[in-house]
Amino acid sequence: MRDVPPTTVILDNGGHNLKIGTLESDEPKIIPNSIVKAKHEKKRVFVGHQQNDCTEKFSLFYVRPIERGYVVNWDTQQQIWEKTFDHLDIEPTTSRIALTDNNYLVPALPDVSSEILFEYFGFQEIHKATASGFVAEHAARIRKRSCVCVVDSGFSWTTVASFVDGILIQESVIRIDVGGKALTNKMKDWISYRQLNVSEETHVINECKEDVCFVTMDFDRSMEEIRKRFKTIEKRYLMPDFQSSFRGQVQNIQDPQPADIPSIVLGVERFAVPEILFNPSDIDIDQCGVAEAVIESISSSPEPLRPALAQNIIVIGGSSQFPGFRERLAHDVRSMLPSEFGCRVADDVANAETHAWNCAQGVLREERVPWIDRKEWDERGESIEFSKFFRTTISSAELKETRNFEEPKEQKEEEEF
Amino acid sequence: MFLPPRKNVTTASQLRASTRISNLEGNRTLDESARRNRRTRQLDGLEQDNFHDDPHANITWNKAAPKFQDEMIGGSKKAKKNKDDKPGHTVHGDKARRRKLARPEFNKQRFKKTFNVHVTEQSKAILTSSDPDFRRVNAYFLATAPPSNKPARKFCAVCGKTSNYCCTKCGARYCGIHCRDVHNDTRCMKWLA
C-alpha cells in the first residue's frame, strides 16, 4: 500500500512544554506549549517556538491549551501544533504520530485529538499513550522490569500510577492537583505580598523557581534555620531587565547588593514552595503528598506485586527537577513502607522532563505498538482508541457492577455558594 | 495493607465554634463555610494562567475598521476593502473581532463552565452511551488523592514561618504581634489574589 515507510513523529504534549522529535532524532525539541502576548509588542503574538523572538519577557500574557493536564482549548492547540510542524519540517501526510494524552491514564474528557490529527493535518497513523505509560512500557520491554510505579510531576498535576508489564492498574492511579503552575502561582502570591509585586511576571518567577528552589530533607530543621536567622538559606535574586540580562541571577545574601537592580530575597520560599508537593495541606489543599500517594498507589495494587513496585519507582516530569526531590521521596516512602520491603527510586533518569519522550522513542524503535489508521477511526471512532490504547488490568465488564455514576464531591461543594 | 483506616477528623475550629464566642466577635466574623469558600476561591486562583488583562484586548488594528458601536450600513463597505488589502492582519484583528461579535454568548458559556463540570458531563455521556466503557466513568474523581494522614501544618500568612495563632475574624494564621498587625492592616477581610 505504501512505498516509503512513514516518518514516526513522537510528541509528548505537556502542559508547559511540548517535547517533539522523530524516531531518528537524538534529543527531542522542547517547545513552549502556549501562545504569548507581550506588552511591548502589539503587532503580533508569539506561538510556540516563536517565543524565542520575544526579547522583553515582562508581563507576558499566556494562552494555554491545557488545563489540569487535559487539552481543553483545541483552537490554541491546533495553532501551536501547526507552527511546530512547520518549524521542524514535519510533513504530516507522510508521517505517523505517537501522541501523549492524559485521557489514557485518567479518562476525563472526550478525546478529539484524532479528529484534528487525521482530518486537519492528515497523519497516516496514530498511536496514543500517556507519558507514564511510555515509561512503564520502556521499563517492561527494554529494561525487563515488569512492575513499575511511575510518579509524574508535571506542570498541571502530579500523578502516581502503577503498571505491570506496561499495563495500567487503574485503581492505583492517584492524582494530586499540584503541579508546576500551582507552585509558580503560589510563589508569585507570596513574593507579591511580602516584597515586590510580581503578580504579572509569570515567566520571571517561573525561572526564579527553577533557579533557587530546592526540596529540603528535613523541613523542620530548615524552618529552624530561618527562624534563628542563620542566613544559611537566604539568597538574593536579581531580576532580569531584558536589556543586559535575560535571566535572573542568584546571589548570596552576604554579597553587596547592586543598587540599581531590583531584587528579591528568598528565604522560606526556597524550600516551602517545593514542599507543597510533599504536603499539599500546607496551602489548605485537602490531598496527600507525593510520598503518601506512592504508598497509596502501591497499597491499592494486587498484593503480590507490591514489593516489586516499591523496588522500581521512576520519577519523571518537570516539577521533579528540584534538587533533592528524588532523595526526599525515597526517604519519605522508605519510612512508610513495611520494613521487609525494599525501596528504590530510579536514579538513572538523566532528564526528568524529556525522559518520557526518550522512553517512547525506545519503545517505538521496537515497533510492536498498536497503531490506528484513518479507516479504522472512521469506522469506529473514539471507542477503538480506548480499546487499543487504554490497556488496564481490569476490563470494563468487571467494573460494570461496581462503578455507578455518583455526583462527585467537589461539585457539591461548589453548589453551596 | 499497612495503613491504618482513614478517620473523619473534626477540625479544631469546628469543635470550638460556640455561639457565645461568635456573638462577642460581632457579625464581621466569617463562619466556617465562608472561610472554606474563600479557601476554595484562592485555590482556584492557583490554576489561573494570568493575573492581568490581555494586553491585546483593546487594540484597534485598523482605524477604518468598523467598531462595535458602529452601525453596519455605510461603514462596512469601506472596512471590507481594507481587509482585503492587508490579509496578514486578519487572524488576530478583524477575524477575531468578527468571531467575537458573532457569538458572544458562546464565549460566555464556555468560561462559565468549570473544568469539573466538563468532566462530570463526559462521565454522564459515557454512561448513557450504547456500549459504555466503565473504566472511563467517573475515573477522574476516583483518582483524586485522599486526604493526608498527617494533620496539616500551620504557617504564618504574612512571613511564612510556623504559626501558633489565628485571626479571630477571617481565620488566617499569623506568628506574632508584628505579623498580626501587618495582617490586620493589609489583608484581613479583604482578599488580594
TrEMBL record, chain A:
<dbReference type="GO" id="GO:0005634">
    <property type="term" value="C:nucleus"/>
</dbReference>
<dbReference type="Pfam" id="PF00022">
    <property type="entry name" value="Actin"/>
</dbReference>
<dbReference type="InterPro" id="IPR004000">
    <property type="entry name" value="Actin"/>
</dbReference>
<dbReference type="GO" id="GO:0005737">
    <property type="term" value="C:cytoplasm"/>
</dbReference>
<keyword id="KW-0963">Cytoplasm</keyword>
<comment type="similarity">
    <text>Belongs to the actin family. ARP6 subfamily.</text>
</comment>
<dbReference type="InterPro" id="IPR043129">
    <property type="entry name" value="ATPase_NBD"/>
</dbReference>
<protein>
    <submittedName>
        <fullName>Actin-related protein 6</fullName>
    </submittedName>
</protein>
From TrEMBL, chain B:
<keyword id="KW-0479">Metal-binding</keyword>
<feature type="region of interest" description="Disordered">
    <location>
        <begin position="76"/>
        <end position="98"/>
    </location>
</feature>
<keyword id="KW-0863">Zinc-finger</keyword>
<protein>
    <submittedName>
        <fullName>HIT-type domain-containing protein</fullName>
    </submittedName>
</protein>
<keyword id="KW-0862">Zinc</keyword>
<dbReference type="Pfam" id="PF04438">
    <property type="entry name" value="zf-HIT"/>
</dbReference>
<feature type="compositionally biased region" description="Basic and acidic residues">
    <location>
        <begin position="82"/>
        <end position="94"/>
    </location>
</feature>
<dbReference type="InterPro" id="IPR039723">
    <property type="entry name" value="Vps71/ZNHIT1"/>
</dbReference>
<feature type="region of interest" description="Disordered">
    <location>
        <begin position="31"/>
        <end position="56"/>
    </location>
</feature>
<feature type="domain" description="HIT-type">
    <location>
        <begin position="156"/>
        <end position="188"/>
    </location>
</feature>
<dbReference type="InterPro" id="IPR007529">
    <property type="entry name" value="Znf_HIT"/>
</dbReference>
<dbReference type="GO" id="GO:0008270">
    <property type="term" value="F:zinc ion binding"/>
</dbReference>
<dbReference type="GO" id="GO:0006338">
    <property type="term" value="P:chromatin remodeling"/>
</dbReference>
<dbReference type="GO" id="GO:0005634">
    <property type="term" value="C:nucleus"/>
</dbReference>
